[in-house]
UniProtKB/TrEMBL annotation:
Residues 138-149, 156-166 have a biased composition (Acidic residues). This is Mitochondrial glycoprotein. Gene3D superfamilies: Mitochondrial glycoprotein. Residues 128-171 are annotated as: Disordered. It holds the Pfam family MAM33. SUPFAM superfamilies: Mitochondrial glycoprotein MAM33-like. It comes from Urochloa decumbens.
């Protein structure tokens, strides 16, 4: 089990709070963004490097023939995929940990999630970060530029469409806030490049069974979007104060894109080793 740690002071400066400093963030940006009213109080202006080069880890073998990977040559096809994924990974520049990043990163090799942990006052914060949902990102480059003429003729149009849709990629977060005793707060969030949305919020009791072992069905409250607007905004602010901010989630988005490429290579290598035995 391999862990990567990145820690910073437990409290972030006021300038890191997006909800109350949108104006200053916009002035510092090269591309100011408009602010939405309800579900997107956590906004950040898009900077020059806000949308990295991303990759959809779908096989390019289907519909194409590559050198050394003719029909039925599965090991050859896997070799090509592994090589191209490694080339992408070698060219990928991992962003440095942002200033005042408050979490410890627990990254176990071979797993599809990364765990973030921190203490905040008398609370323990744990964030489970899932692999990114990559919308419209480019595939690995075709090593020899092969492909039919029709596909080649559409390259420019495809590039424009990919640039427009790449910014829609996101990561899913499960944020659990707990204290020494009592219930926990559990948030399900989606982090985009310019906003974080709360999809659901639950109060999780310590046990869902009574003394007789019978399952209980506690009232779970209304849907998050049905809460009063001021309560919704207060919960966004609550998460910000505990470190769930756009700078943190944007960094984790880039981190998870890189992790996905690493895990893809490991998975492909295992498959190649198995079929060659």
């Amino acid at each position: 089990m391999a862990f990567v740690s990145a820690t910073a002071p437990a409290t972030a400066p006021a300038s890191a709070t997006i909800f109350i400093s949108v104006a200053s963030a916009v002035r510092a940006s090269t591309c100011p963004q408009s602010r939405r009213l309800l579900l997107a109080p956590l906004h950040a202006a898009k900077g020059a490097k806000s949308v990295p080069v991303e990759v959809v880890l779908d096989s390019k073998v289907k519909g194409k023939k590559k050198k050394g990977s003719g029909a039925g040559n599965l090991p050859g096809a896997l070799e090509v995929e592994i090589r191209e994924a490694q080339e992408y990974l070698d060219s990928d520049e991992q962003e440095p940990v942002p200033e005042n990043f408050p979490f410890e990163i627990l990254d176990e090799e071979g797993m599809s999630v990364v765990i973030l942990k921190r203490d905040f006052k008398d609370e323990k914060i744990e964030v489970t970060v899932s692999m990114p949902n990559l919308e419209g990102g480019p595939e690995f480059d075709d090593e020899d530029g092969e492909g039919d003429g029709e596909s080649a003729g559409k390259d420019n149009d495809d590039d424009e469409e990919e640039d427009e849709s790449a910014g829609e990629s996101s990561i899913s977060l499960k944020v659990v806030v707990s204290k020494a005793s009592g219930p926990k707060l559990e948030f399900t969030c989606t982090a985009f490049r310019e906003e974080i949305t709360i999809d659901d919020m639950l109060i999780v009791e310590s046990t869902n069974t009574n003394d007789d072992g019978e399952e209980k069905f506690p009232y779970e409250g209304p849907e998050f979007t049905e809460l009063p607007v001021n309560v919704q905004k207060g919960l966004f602010k609550y998460l910000e104060q505990r470190g769930v901010t756009l700078p943190a989630t944007n960094y984790m988005h880039d981190y998870m894109v890189t992790k996905q490429a690493q895990e893809y290579i490991r998975w492909m290598t295992k498959l190649k080793d198995f079929v060659k035995q």
